[in-house]
Amino acid sequence: MKIVKLVLVCIIAFSATLEAQERELLIGTKIGASYSTFSGFRDIEYLPTPAYGVFANIPVSKRFSLQVGFDNSYIGWCRPIPNSKRFETAVIPVYTFPMLAKYYFVKGFNLQIGGELSILGSTMGTGIYSEYHRYNSGVLGGLGYDFKKIQIYARYNHGITNMNTARNVWVGVEGESQFLDYTEMNRLFQIGLEFRVYKRKEKKPQRYGKYRRPQ
What we know:
The chain has one domain (14-201): Beta Barrel (Porin). Helices cover 7% and strands 60% of the residues. It has one helix at 2-17, and strands at residues 24-39, 47-59, 64-80, 87-106, 109-120, 124-125, 135-146, 150-159, 169-173, 176-180, 185-201. The protein is elongated, with a radius of gyration of 23 Å. The protein starts with a helix and ends in a 14-residue tail after the last strand.
């Protein structure tokens, strides 16, 4: 634990000595891949799906920026059907509104943390045992790197909302009480690229008004 604290202190101290990169407003589109599964009672695997969206990266200070966006992607799960080459799947389209705080600890590299709200569409797939709630929420964390015109990122979404509409109940099984827990929460990894389509540089304040400094 002491080693981890020492490493964090070194990173912060090193980043403080670096010349801050030029901060600018970025607006663009993004494309990526998601790997989603649900925690809970099912024995399932990750479901790979594409993800698309738009974003706006708003500078706050030399080291921080705020990024908001809108994503059109999917969540769900899959698992192989025994004695078959087919897969049992649940594919749910989602419309997501992420909000991230980005800290630039080294020029270009940034640590990302935040949250998101999602609106779920209709479940598509085979073998779906229950319906899911329409809304979902989660916390985000990840890393990224900003090039001049492209941003790359890798994020993890930890769902905090139970999406399953089934009630958790106590039942009697062979004369003993047993708790049936149908709680399911989204777990999702996402990697992608964000492309700049608009950039507005911040205007630096003039020290001598409209006129140049006298020679």
